[in-house]
Design brief:
The chain is mainly alpha-helical. It has two domains: 286 residues, no CATH class; 108 residues. The chain is 66% helix and 4% strand.
Length: 512
Amino acid sequence: MFKAEISQPQPGMFDQHPFWLRICLVLMFLLAALIRCDEIQAPGHLLDREYTSAIFARAFYFMSNDQVEDWRRDIAVTTMNQQPVLEPPLVEYLVSLIYRVMGREEIYYARFLTGTFWLIGGIFMYLIAKKLLSTEAALFATVYYLFVPMGVIISRSFQPDSLMMMLFLASLYLIVNYFENGGEHHLLQASVVTAITLLLRPLVLFAIFFAFLALSLQKKESWRKIIDRPLMIFSGVSLLPAAVYYGYGIVFAGFMRWKVSASFLPHLLTKSDFWLGWFRLGMTVAGGALLIAAIIGFFLLPNRITRGLMIGLAISYFVFGVAFTYHIHTHPYYHIQLFPIIAICAAACFANIVTALRTTSGKVWPVPVILSLSLILFFAYRTERASLYQVRVEPDPRTAWKIGQIVGHSPYTVFVSRHYGLPLEYYGEFGGAPWPVRIEDPFYRQPGALEQSVQDRIDALGFKPVYFVITHFDLYLRKHQDLETYLKSACSIRLETTEYLIYSQCQTISKH
């Protein structure tokens, strides 16, 4: 009965004309690929995340390239090791392989890879929606997923979220397939792919497990029966690799503990601005009009299985936001888990409109509706791109290289620069750390947190600074007056221009 309810949608026009279905799918994916190639060399979505990945990819590339000078290889590896540890850098390693094939290092090569991941995710989005709804609805869902503006923008940024979405949708498809067909081999397929997904990017942990629990509850029809052998197998296989990697990094080695403290700020839950910021950012990412269509479409979903799955994913999104209080209201890409929910629910809405038109007007082709939706999303993307991509990498790469030469490509440099100094490090080929930001903002300041002195922050860097580089003068003068006082009193000016200020030969000051 579960299989009968989750599948067997009513046949539509595309089921009767598979040739036009293939044509429509090819055109959709071709247009989606072309859009992602639009100004492929332009800066990505989140520059500090993009250049963190670029630093890793360069180090991997240099380590395998005998023609690179030793000092460049050494500083590339040192700079990589100075970056905070996140997830396993698979995307960065794959990009380094592309560098080897192409024979040179270009960041925009990575965008072809991340865009490809997103397109593959679109295939799984289509398969999921087809299982849950119908062929026509699957086309609507795929159009949304491929062309939602923030999805296009994020998919052409050098960060692992495109891979995460591809693996997340693959996991979700295999989970739905298991509950539709049963069988331990289907369960193991879902478990193994989920294990890879959570190891490489655990942000979708709640979404995957709430999806599994929601479908399991629909099958068992009782919470008391939900803990069973399939759930134990799925949980054990799925969680083991991620638990070993992240558990070691957080609990035992401690090198990932910073991520937990930086992500979960519980005091934000009591602030209305946090909830409003979360809502506004979610609306912006998902698309306000499509979100409304999704709310309507939820009540038009054809069966309780699909409704239960959507409720499970919606609850997981809320739990995820509460767990990542800092990022959920500041980082747009933390909302992309909404896309499958919006895609399926909005697709149900549009599919019902087409069905109603066919009933009242006779034969109605959904192709014009799909093309119209594609154009709407395309122009929405162009508008969004215009607002997000008017970004320049500062300082200019040539200026960064000059700074690198002046500081002797030292790995012991402290900098006040845009995007945590990552573009500066990347193009200047030197290492170090950004000067710690002050915690004076009452919104983010943890209760009881105390401001550190300049010397305290120097001691916490983990190395003795040889150079201080300032390129972001506005931030320096507004937020780091204590650093300015220290540099003027304890250091010598190495070089000063209108673009940068470099100090060296600093003396240790006594703590007060």
